[in-house]
Amino acid sequence: MSSSNVDDLAPLAKVDTIVHNDENSFELSRVVLVCLDPESSDITFKWALDNFIIPSKDLVSLSITSRDKKKSK
């Protein structure tokens, strides 16, 4: 059985991008958070759009987290 050591992990990279559309803001009825990772982000986002996101009524927040390739020292 292997054990993980948090100190061995590369730091998380955080980037925020805000996109706002005033055109539909009065109709928003819920906030949807979709968490994505680089390996499956395209499939996951497409699934969310096809299955439960309603663009005219949902404020969608995407959380995309990945590990930096370089480890900080």
Protein architecture, described:
With 73 residues, the chain is of the alpha+beta class. 15% of the residues lie in helices and 25% in strands. The protein is built from one helix and four strands. A two-stranded antiparallel ribbon has the order 1-4. Strands 2-3 form a two-stranded parallel ribbon. The longest helix has 11 residues, at 41-51. The protein is elongated and about 45 Å long. It starts with 11 loop residues before the first strand and ends in a 6-residue tail after the last strand. The model has no long low-confidence stretch (mean pLDDT 75).
Fraction of helical residues? 10-25%
What's the helix count?
A: 1
Total DSSP E strands: 4
Largest sheet: 2 strands, antiparallel
List the helices and strands in order: EEHEE
Residues in β-strands, percent: 15-25%
**CA distance, first residue to last residue:** 27 Å
Write out the strand line-up for the largest beta sheet, numbering strands in chain order: 1-4
Shape call: elongated
Which secondary-structure class do the elements indicate? alpha+beta
- Ranges where pLDDT stays below 50 over 5 or more residues in a row are none
Question: From the alpha-carbon coordinates, what is the Rg to the nearest angstrom?
Answer: 17 Å
Q: Overall mean pLDDT score?
A: 75
